Amino acid sequence: MSLMTMIVKMSEGLGKTCAIFFLTLLFSLPLGMLVALLRMSKNKILSSVVRFFITVLRGTPLMLQLLAVTYGPYYLFGANVSRNKLIPVVIAFSINYAAYFAEIYRGGIESIPKGQYEAATVLGYSRFQTFMRIILPQVVKRIMPSVTNEVVTLVKDTSMAFTVSYQEMFTIGKQIANSQTSFMPFIVAGVFYYLFNLVVDRVMGRIEKHLNYYS
Prior knowledge:
Blueprint: H1 3-39, H2 44-59, H3 62-77, H4 86-110, H5 114-122, H6 127-157, H7 169-180, H8 184-211
């Protein structure tokens, strides 16, 4: 197989890799905020339950979570949800990354001085208005470096979808490498991931620069 043919075949998998990446961000970013707010709830029982699930998701391998979401329903309930494997893959990735984003959000929210809440109350802002107009913009600015790091990691983690035989870029590269007995597909995959991450890093860098309005 020529190098060009190899690149074309792996480019087909790149589209599925992008689907995992963008769908995961679409669901995990808002879900992470919800989890963070529940984690910070004054209800001790609710906060403890959410904290427990966060530790489970952060303390177990993403690969195991992929297998559990893809094949667990079949073994537990006889339900086959693995026909379209993109769905369980995105669910597993979204839940896993929501746990990480939740802790990043929580750190950002708790870094805001309490005096700002009190000042907003004096000015007549409701709790919702205070959070959306005063707290959240500052939180987003403060957590961007950490979020960028997680987004870059997500690009590489998409390769874990091969554990459930989802035909993304790394899976296709692995199949070609096995059939051709060659290491070249892995090199090509590495270049693809590097270029993907380069684009992501540039985009996130521009967002950080745009938010750095005090410098």
